[in-house]
Amino acid sequence: MQTTFPQLLFQHAAQRPGEPAMREKEYGIWQALSWADLATMVTHLACGLHQAGLRRGQHMVVVGANRPRLYATMLAAQSLGAVPIPLYQDAAAPECVFPINNADVAFAFAEDQEQVDKLLEARAQCPGLAHIYFDDPRGLRNYDEPGLASLDELLAAGQAFAKLHPDFVKGEVALSQPHDVAAMFFTSGTTGNPKGVVHTHNSLLDRARAGAEFDHLTHREEVLAYLPPAWIGQNIFSYAQWLACGYVVNCPESAATVTIDLKEVGPTYYFAPPRVFEGLLTSVMIRMEDAGALKRRMFQAFMAVAQRVGPTRMDGKSLGLTDRLLYALGDLLVYGPLRNNLGMSRVRVAYTAGEAIGPDLFTFYRSIGINLKQLYGSTETAVFVCLQPDHQARADTVGVPIAGVEIKVADNGEILVKSPGLLKEYFKNPQATAEVLTADGWYHTSDAGFLDAHGHLKIIDRVKDVGRISGGANDGAMFAPKYVENKLKFFPHIKEVVAYGDGREKVCVMINIDFDAVGNWAERRNLPYAGYTDLAQKPEVYQLIKECVEKVNADLSADALLAGSQVSRFLVLHKELDADDGELTRTNKVRRGFIADKYLALVDALYGGATSQFIETQVKFEDGRTGSVSATLRIDDAKTFAPVKAAA
């Protein structure tokens, strides 16, 4: 059963040559690429890369959005026994320097002019980067750089070579073994330089197959590939499982058209981080708030029915006749049109991961008939560790260990994993490898959690982030910052949160509002604002956010373990946290330590009892220019609640 990615490609091309392998939307029209045509393209690219000097064991960087020719380039490199390294397309040039130098990269694929410019800028510090091939030629006509060529030129050269050596690629593919290195993914690098996570064909394909078997995936699935290829989650769903199952991967025209493309494709298998599901729900709620009174009342009435009986229905439990009839009517008038509007009318399995998803958000999607489930995994585990079975999806767990996975909990609460999907190593970093992989094959996840009575895994927080309140009424109480942050992010008006409290006598948070949701809220109340900074500091907005904070505090007061993590003080930041400014990772995770240093004046003001604080912050714009944003931020107190004692 063990095999490699290129071997699977050529198997599909032989078994179903005319069936679509991928679709790409260009100029508003979907273009299909068959398995046979993809195999031919990969063959020619592999021949061209071989002629250019790419050899077994070498690395090749690919930078761009999901495109058939990007996937074909990865497969071509793997066909030669080389190792593709996808990098984030929105990363700045300096962020590309370390991966390129660390992996001794000589070859690169760039989607378009933006990525070419980035790689050329990085090449000043990467002397080994000799060859850059671009897909989209727009804007590149007058470029005259050594080693820069179009993918079309590479294909033409490869085609000529393939005519003279028709069995060359087939022979190279046969040399590769399942235990050979297949790809490398660089971690976000929340502290220090990113680490290259090395995966073999077997580690990626084993997990891809385990996930496919768990959810009964077949070659008939339709997937929309819209998340960065550099993120292993996207790579597993639209590359590893694509080749393991042989289903169709659809590539949207651009990031701006994803919502439209989602409706047109109607995927059957869908994945998105909670932020995407939050954004979709926020857009729905904004539209409903702008709808007429009759439509709003109908929506609210049927959503009350859905929330009451929808999850029970999704869990496969029986409903009474009245509830069945009411739900069927709601499906006709509200839920069906809503699923269609979200592009999820055909979704059979939908997953979310990366961050915790709010119970209300989770319940909303399941209540309207979308089989939304959670999974647990990481780059180092090839994603699939725990998955939620159908009819057993709960908001407070991340599922059960799937085939091949063992889990145990260390004395300090850390989750340890043993799986065929574990990384081979961190590239050129034996010390870091030894820190996460034990001699007997257990991987340290750095996550704190436990298995509940039903065998489902619950995640509390990162082990290093779980702290204690020190001093005051809650002295010694557990503090889990991510848990607090996620509870606040469940509100549609809150986009991002950074919580502090470890070693301090109380918890304080800095909040980013969701500009679209709060902007719409303000406009409906005739509240004028000049932009994000102005809107964020409106007294009315502070009151709105304060109500959210106090609702979370009321919830926390009922949690015996985390009642001491209630938020005492908060402020609304004057700018959105941004990966370009170093405040988020490229996977949009908060860099809490970096933010604490950058906004030390705000942290001190929160804990010093100040009611306001002036701050000026340097920001980086998309075109590379820098500027500054300044404001005097208001700081508010929030009501906290006495812990609710459990009934005797």
What's the arrangement of secondary structure elements?
Elements: H1 5-15, E1 20-26, E2 29-34, H2 35-52, E3 59-63, H3 68-79, E4 83-87, H4 93-102, E5 107-110, H5 113-123, E6 131-134, E7 148-150, H6 151-164, H7 168-175, E8 181-186, E9 196-200, H8 201-214, E10 222-224, H9 232-245, E11 248-251, H10 258-265, E12 269-271, H11 274-290, H12 293-314, H13 321-342, E13 349-352, H14 359-367, E14 372-376, E15 386-387, E16 400-401, E17 406-409, E18 414-418, E19 425-426, H15 430-436, E20 443-451, E21 457-462, E22 467-468, E23 478-479, H16 481-489, E24 494-500, E25 507-513, H17 515-524, H18 532-536, H19 539-557, E26 567-572, H20 592-598, H21 600-608, E27 612-620, E28 626-637
Parallel strand pairs: 1-11, 3-4, 3-5, 5-6, 6-7, 10-11, 12-13, 13-14, 25-26
Antiparallel strand pairs: 1-2, 8-9, 9-19, 14-15, 15-16, 17-18, 18-20, 20-21, 22-23, 24-25, 26-28, 27-28
Helix pairs in contact: 1-2, 1-3, 2-3, 2-6, 4-5, 8-9, 11-17, 12-13, 12-14, 20-21
Characterization of this structure:
This protein is α/β, with parallel strands linked by helices and 648 residues long. Among the domains are: 204 residues, 3-Layer(aba) Sandwich (Rossmann fold), CATH 3.40.50; 77 residues, Luciferase, Domain 3 (Luciferase, domain 3, Roll), CATH 2.30.38; 171 residues, ANL, C-terminal domain (GMP Synthetase, Chain A, domain 3), CATH 3.30.300. The mean pLDDT is 93.
Contiguous low-pLDDT stretches (5 residues minimum) are: none
- CATH architectural grouping of the domain at 5-10 and 18-205 and 230-239: 3-Layer(aba) Sandwich
Strand content: 15-25%
Structural class: alpha/beta
Number of helices: 21
CATH topology of the domain at 5-10 and 18-205 and 230-239: Rossmann fold
Kindly provide the name of the CATH class of the domain at 5-10 and 18-205 and 230-239: Alpha Beta
Main sheet: strand order: 4-3-5-6-7
The first-to-last residue Cα distance is 56 Å
Give the CA-based shape: globular
Please summarize the sheet with the most strands.
5 strands, parallel
Q: Provide the residue-averaged pLDDT.
A: 93
